[in-house]
UniProtKB/TrEMBL annotation, chains A, B, C, D:
It comes from Chaetomium globosum (strain ATCC 6205 / CBS 148.51 / DSM 1962 / NBRC 6347 / NRRL 1970). PANTHER family: HYPERKINETIC, ISOFORM M, VIC POTASSIUM ION CHANNEL, BETA SUBUNIT (EUROFUNG). This is NADP-dependent oxidoreductase domain-containing protein. Keywords: NADP, Oxidoreductase. Gene3D superfamilies: NADP-dependent oxidoreductase domain (3.20.20.100). GO terms for molecular function: oxidoreductase activity.
Amino acid sequence: MSKPDNLPEMEYRFLGRSGLQVSAISLGGWLTYGGHVDREGTYACMKAAYDCGVNFFDCAEGYAEGESEKVMGEAIKKYEWKRNDIVISTKLYWGDAFSNSKVNNRGLSRKHVIEGMNQSLERLQLEYVDLIYAHRPDRHTPMEETVRAFNHLINTGKALYWGTSEWNADEIAQAWRYADKLGLIGPVMEQPRYNMLERIQVEREYAHLYREVGLGLTVFSPMRQGILSGKYKNGIPDGSRFAQTQVEFIAGFWKQTGKAEFQAMADTVSKLEPIAERLGVKQSVLALAWVLANPNVSSAITGASSQAQVYENIEAVRAYKKLTPEIMKEIDEILNNKPPTVTMRY
Amino acid sequence: MSKPDNLPEMEYRFLGRSGLQVSAISLGGWLTYGGHVDREGTYACMKAAYDCGVNFFDCAEGYAEGESEKVMGEAIKKYEWKRNDIVISTKLYWGDAFSNSKVNNRGLSRKHVIEGMNQSLERLQLEYVDLIYAHRPDRHTPMEETVRAFNHLINTGKALYWGTSEWNADEIAQAWRYADKLGLIGPVMEQPRYNMLERIQVEREYAHLYREVGLGLTVFSPMRQGILSGKYKNGIPDGSRFAQTQVEFIAGFWKQTGKAEFQAMADTVSKLEPIAERLGVKQSVLALAWVLANPNVSSAITGASSQAQVYENIEAVRAYKKLTPEIMKEIDEILNNKPPTVTMRY
Amino acid sequence: MSKPDNLPEMEYRFLGRSGLQVSAISLGGWLTYGGHVDREGTYACMKAAYDCGVNFFDCAEGYAEGESEKVMGEAIKKYEWKRNDIVISTKLYWGDAFSNSKVNNRGLSRKHVIEGMNQSLERLQLEYVDLIYAHRPDRHTPMEETVRAFNHLINTGKALYWGTSEWNADEIAQAWRYADKLGLIGPVMEQPRYNMLERIQVEREYAHLYREVGLGLTVFSPMRQGILSGKYKNGIPDGSRFAQTQVEFIAGFWKQTGKAEFQAMADTVSKLEPIAERLGVKQSVLALAWVLANPNVSSAITGASSQAQVYENIEAVRAYKKLTPEIMKEIDEILNNKPPTVTMRY
Amino acid sequence: MSKPDNLPEMEYRFLGRSGLQVSAISLGGWLTYGGHVDREGTYACMKAAYDCGVNFFDCAEGYAEGESEKVMGEAIKKYEWKRNDIVISTKLYWGDAFSNSKVNNRGLSRKHVIEGMNQSLERLQLEYVDLIYAHRPDRHTPMEETVRAFNHLINTGKALYWGTSEWNADEIAQAWRYADKLGLIGPVMEQPRYNMLERIQVEREYAHLYREVGLGLTVFSPMRQGILSGKYKNGIPDGSRFAQTQVEFIAGFWKQTGKAEFQAMADTVSKLEPIAERLGVKQSVLALAWVLANPNVSSAITGASSQAQVYENIEAVRAYKKLTPEIMKEIDEILNNKPPTVTMRY
């Protein structure tokens, strides 16, 4: 499948207060690359994304037991992309797949941060990553140990910037506290879940951090695992090769939230359909565009499993500019989950 | 000898306040590996321990003139253990064996810390150790020089954590004072002697340090070199291949403590026999379990010289949970050496 | 062409407050080496300069899309100059030529500073440069990120000193503020444009910095791209191989300043002719000498495109000593652009 | 010549407050090794010294234009001495021999400190030296630049300790001031000239530094270039292979001090002869012993040009213990140059 003619030009945003620029749409390997998308499929998605101006590719040691990193690394090599043209990330926390032991291969101890990084770089066939994330907070390891360990990665040239994923605001503030105290580098970005249905952390909890430490966001799950595309409004579509996976996914979801809540979400999503139609975009594009409309979002990480999906996602770069204050208000009324504004007076 | 079926599952403990986890029972090379236990015997003990979940193997440059490190390094290679699954330590202070000169190869000068580390890593065939210990305090080297030298090892990737062995509480506090002043990393663990007969340092002297710096303990000599197993209550057992060594050992002991004191200890130990019987464990297991019952102990380093002994030691992981407050009180009354509690009010 | 007999001995000056000495006249690659001067021509100029005592050769990643660095690197190799005898600089900011992407290859983010440095060293075939410049201020990257990135280059041995080019005085002061706060190394030199027609930044704006941080200056464009040589007083000379380039240059200049302003400058320059004649030097030598007469100038970077020009420039080392206070006053009256003196009272 | 039977055992002293131990007598390469003593002669001296327990060998980039370092490096290799058994020093300042240029190869700029160190290590065939000295103060380079550069050598593992040679007390204090301010390592030792005839710097000027920073001394010229051996009391001895050198030496000396002053020194030295005789040692041994009697001296660097001289020097280790307070007083009365005691009250 070749690149459509009418795609918008990619937009690049600074990663929070840092001097690094990432494409507003990026590609991530969670649940897909190295997993249920095969090698050739991954290569094709990455190539399509790169050709659309995507420069940021996101990974983690924990994705598909390291396969995700391997396949991404192979694609980078295969297409001979210049290292300085791309922004590669990975995340450390769940290194259990690479061990026989139940301990020390998970979390943010100095041991796992250093050993995990070396193993990730080997799988990626890279000398360094641009971004290294602490994939979760580790409440068993002292914050100072973790802050020092990530700075060690930066000092030894194995990573250029470090950040967090799914940390609480106060944990990020604690990390900065130790960085400041010791003259070290603090976390410049956070990777939270963010979409129309899950707003509170990005819109309220982190509010002080955008101003105080210039936190950048690379958000994942912008479509709430497909729910926001509207594809579940009539149940699970048949015949698709992912049907089985989706059955399991929804079953898992139900377990988490209850069937009633899932249905309530699907209903809300249905109400967004007319807005998408009015803007002339698919519902999935609207969902992604809505995420990009938040200026604190540096990049929305998408998990496309085909070139077509990649191209579709790129549409959001144009679509989000159509989201006028009026339309945003309309959407807020449908969603009915807008957190109260945080007022900062000090 | 194959692993018994009914062994308890290994327990892992954080090394003090750090994010590193070590098995509650660990294996050390003092007086054994590279010494009177031969190569094959060492390999077998290490394999048996590893198969029981032991992840921490302790060594020192001074053990068996470096042979201990060599044999341990060979075993790690032989069994192809993953580096991230194991915690390897060594200690620097007595490097005299590797020199013609009487000076600069002993102690904690920057010269010996750096040179000793490089030589240890070569013998171990490793790129780094997890833990590096200052094997004794060096009262001739300024504390600042030593703290800087161990941090140099960490910064250059040759060690992940540093600690001390048989330092006084105030020396550890001094090391932290310099670490704090210079923004460096302080010692996270201490390796003291600790057993039913030698309690004062661990239970009283270090008390402030558990709270103030989160000091972790990897204790050695949990059976007071076998005395607590009860095997000397009727004199020295015959026919064992270690008899001769033991004769010398006890002779040495007598020189240190006097024959009367040795007998007094043996008598005390005898009184513990009924308790062990009541709990259904050997006396040696009781002694080890008693050490593990102290929550400030991260790991008890054992010096098994056969697979059977390894397996026996593992029993302590289950046994220590049977040590109720009542039994602990009973033991304290027999031992009659419990230090007064330290009350911290500031 | 061989070296004339009567050239003055080179003068060396400290680079601001630093302990490094650079030749008062240096050779730079802007618009010339790797560009419209061919390989052999560049080699010849560098050799001629070196033989006259020039020890400082200036370059930038952005000159001639990297060709300038390549040709300079080849010359250093070809003539087997000892690394300790020469001072090599390059500058980072415009790395766009080495990328497909529009982002992250320009500016002073940690990513570009580190990646740009590695690529420059490869082109130069050197392990390190003596001086690394931030070629422009990057107002999108936090100053702290930039200061840390340049210190990383120094700590990893890829550069010995760092500085700025065409930064504002307050930006330089901010860089020092972060360096001081973090115990890092501040920028020791600035590379501004400085000549008889452009004086305000060097003579007024930076005035506090010479005293407060000991800023050194390596100035470029000492002849205002040839205007100060007097060669444009009668229009553009014919027949020279650069005529076409010069037509474009002047056309470009006119666009920038307006034709009237260009003519006014040419008129002013004409009035300097009698002074040059009185001193027995060419007008271009007078212009360069005037730059050297400023004691805050560590080195004047010239862009000779022939050996003859190199030798001519060297004359300025002798000529500037003839610039008595009376002659300087006469020149100031002609130029009529002397900034008021900065008085520092605090 | 084989080692005499009755030589005293070597004494080792801590280098000031540091944890490093150096032999009280050491061997230095000034004016000898790589110079007028040939290769085989140097090897023999070094071997003889090593066999007597000398562990400290002193060199400098400036000695014999680098030949001194080369020959010492060869001897270390030839005799296969263990690196941890010996203490090797060199000094940076006069690197002019390794350059065509008059600038940047002398002094203590970051450029020369780093480049000079790399070149010295190459000549010595070593990965690191134990001690690196700033061979003179460099009043053109800011102290902060020099302190940072020497710390860079330590951080990159090229040297273990740094110090100074012939610096003023206030310059050493300034270096410590910057080290303290920046959390860096200060100079731990100074290498001054010290002998019976030149006492003021060691005995008075540095007095505060022994207490305040624990300064160690490795003193050179303990016999004032042979004058204190008494060999010039009757003029210059004939027939020796160094006669010609000595003629020049004394001529040079005269230029420096005047013939009268030289004669006055020779007369003073003559008066020490009876004391040497009383103690049963040569006058040269008395001179060296007198230096060792100062407890602030860590090592006296001797420049023996034959094995016999090496063995003779070792005698001083025994001889200095015979210097009772009464004898010291008698010597002071002859020398008549004892500086007043420094009283420190703050």
